[in-house]
Specification:
Elements: E1 6-8, H1 20-33, E2 36-40, H2 46-60, H3 64-67, E3 80-82, E4 99-103, H4 112-115, H5 132-158, H6 164-168, E5 175-181, E6 195-198, E7 204-209, E8 215-218, E9 224-226, E10 234-238, H7 240-245, E11 255-257, E12 265-272, E13 279-280, E14 298-299, H8 300-311
Parallel strand pairs: 1-2
Antiparallel strand pairs: 2-10, 3-4, 4-5, 5-12, 6-11, 7-10, 7-12, 8-9, 8-11, 13-14
Helix pairs in contact: 1-5, 2-5
């Protein structure tokens, strides 16, 4: 249990449907044993990643006053810039040594969900940087498609309809995030980490990380192991929502980021989450007489909002618009 598995998912993009079960079996084993794995053979190009990294570096280098024009704490729907120490993922540690940009599925002001002021629904708030909005909106759609390809493969092992997740990811509340971790020497104390130990909230996360390193995953023996950058891959992990769906058959695994020494670190996680009204309840094939359903039924929005309140102080206070 010292090395996360690496899975080649290129067969999921071939015309041969008979190739799917082999990949699905590898994914199923990784989800059961780790809740974490790398994927290679995906369609996201190195050129795309380079363009995203360039834009992220230029955005986070902007003056604070300019970034705060899209301050995430001034919105109802959790979009925009999060300053350093806005998040506290580990309640036993200081707030995280990172700054962020969050975006979701763009819904215009006249969309029924926006007019109804439903949580997590609204327009994106992009910085005024040439090319930024076009690049980010396209990457969001491409990452959503990649996530749904992985979820489609999972249905084979979970014994559910092939379109089970697809039908629940119409107008999703998935989030594309850009993160900048300043070097460790800028921390407010020795206890401040880049990202405190936590499990992800939602369904499935796909992470690009640059060459700086710092991601650590807790294995089944309770040991922290490194999940180093591997060129051409994404790190994939499951969140608490998938653990609930699968009745803990699939693991939602604690992980953290230790800020590197003397380096700035950039990462780009994509958090794939379904439509906010989706019911999260134990899948039929994940319960039996010996393994009854562990969790009460909830909805995607209810569950995510409860977790946000634990992580973001501004979500517990009166919000701006």
């Amino acid at each position: 249990m010292e090395q996360l598995p690496i899975i080649d998912i290129s067969p999921l993009y071939s015309a041969d449907q008979n190739a799917w079960p082999t990949v699905a079996t590898q994914i199923d084993q990784a989800c059961r044993e780790w809740g974490f794995f790398y994927i290679k053979g995906h369609p996201i190009t190195a050129q795309r990643i380079a363009a995203l990294l360039d834009h992220a570096q230029r955005f986070f280098a902007l003056p604070a006053a300019e970034k705060l024009q899209i301050d995430i704490t001034q919105t109802r729907h959790h979009r925009g810039y999060g300053a350093i120490a806005t998040e506290q993922l580990d309640p036993d540690r200081p707030s995280d040594l990172k700054e962020t940009f969050d975006m979701g599925l763009h819904l215009p002001a006249d969309h029924p969900d926006v007019l109804a002021e439903k949580p997590l629904r609204g327009p994106n708030r992009h910085p005024q940087m040439p090319g930024w909005q076009t690049l980010m909106e396209q990457h969001y759609l491409d990452m959503q498609a990649l996530a749904q390809t992985l979820l489609r493969a999972m249905t084979i092992a979970l014994g559910i309809e092939r379109d089970f997740f697809d039908s629940r990811f119409t107008e999703p509340v998935s989030v594309l995030r850009m993160i900048h971790y300043p070097p460790r020497h800028t921390a407010s104390s020795a206890e401040q980490q880049g990202a405190g130990a936590h499990t992800d909230y939602g369904c499935i996360t796909l992470l690009y990380q640059d060459s700086a390193g710092g991601l650590q995953v807790k294995n089944v023996n309770g040991e922290w192991i490194d999940a180093p950058p591997i060129d051409g891959t994404f790190v994939v992990n499951l969140g608490d929502m998938m653990a609930r769906w699968s009745n803990d058959r699939y693991r939602s695994t604690p992980h953290r980021v230790i800020s590197p020494l003397g380096l700035d670190r950039y990462s780009m996680p994509f958090f794939a989450e379904p439509h906010p009204d989706t019911r999260i309840e134990c899948l039929p094939g994940c319960r039996d007489a010996q393994h009854p359903a562990k969790y009460p039924t909830t909805t995607c929005a209810e569950f995510l909002l409860s977790r946000f309140a634990d992580t973001y102080a501004y979500r517990r206070e009166p919000q701006g618009v």
